[in-house]
Amino acid sequence: MSTTRTRHFKGPPPELSISIKALKDVDDIPIPWESRGDQSQVPTELLLMTATDEAFLPCYSLMEHVEKVYHNTLGFVYFGEFKDTNHKHQSVKVALMKHYEGVCETLKAVTNAAHVLHPKVTILVGTCETLERTIKVKPGDVVIATKLATYDDDRILPKVSRNVRTLILSAGHGWKPPLKDPESLKVKVKTALMISGSDKIKNRESLKNLQKDFPDALVIEDGGRGLYEAACDLKMEWAIVKGVSGSAGESEEVSESWKQFSSTMAASVVYDMFKYIVLQNWTRERELAGDTKDVSNAETAGSNHSQRNVN
């Protein structure tokens, strides 16, 4: 594979055309869960899961009519809408949550949230890294998983869920990156095999071995396998949409400035793809209704994901 060190790996990212809220601007007045009434009567169509503030804030900033609600098992959930500028009365009902990083923590958080919120699709939004400085993808680009390769047990998992698999064929079509100067960076949307595992890998020799094991993989991330296992167990639509923040193994300082920019690109792609007209006929797994047990044992959940709840 030919590689190059492009200028996109150096310097700050370009300016955005949208305003991303700071943590201090996030709604700090929660309302009681009971005030939302029966959750089945206030359906969630899109569940966004984020592990970092850099990913949370762009998702939050794109939402309108946001309510901060506390649930004993889930913690804070931010309910809101993605408005469709072309169809003002066709908004998408969104729930946004944060979770701890890692496969088991993601599995636990997604499972608990799905039992309560019954989403039509759950999406992991955040950042990923390239395996090397490659001409195929650069910081700011968005990668959507078509499959996951797991380095913990060296295997490739089945394809992404049915409806999402069809939808991502047109990923990026007509999407306009939220850039103040559209010519400042040619942001691309890619669909590809992602490598996922339980920990971040920084050792360059290990990264080279992963490239040999999974030559078709474009990027590496952590946490996606947890979403996959939860979604398979729950028969739920799922997607992993992540912005490239840098190259795996490089210093944190190099990629840090790109993390929120890349997460913003990923959140914008989600906003663009998952419209009301797309989701209106997608179904929920109604058998989840009323089942809100807490998956409290993450290790057991990770090793035995065929069970719906682990007490």
UniProtKB/TrEMBL annotation:
One of its GO terms (biological process) is L-methionine salvage from S-adenosylmethionine. It comes from the Eukaryota. Residues 289-311 are annotated as: Disordered. Residues 297-311 have a biased composition (Polar residues). One of its GO terms (cellular component) is cytosol. GO terms for molecular function: adenosylhomocysteine nucleosidase activity; methylthioadenosine nucleosidase activity. This is 5 -methylthioadenosine S-adenosylhomocysteine nucleosidase. The lineage of its organism: Eukaryota, Metazoa, Cnidaria, Anthozoa, Octocorallia.
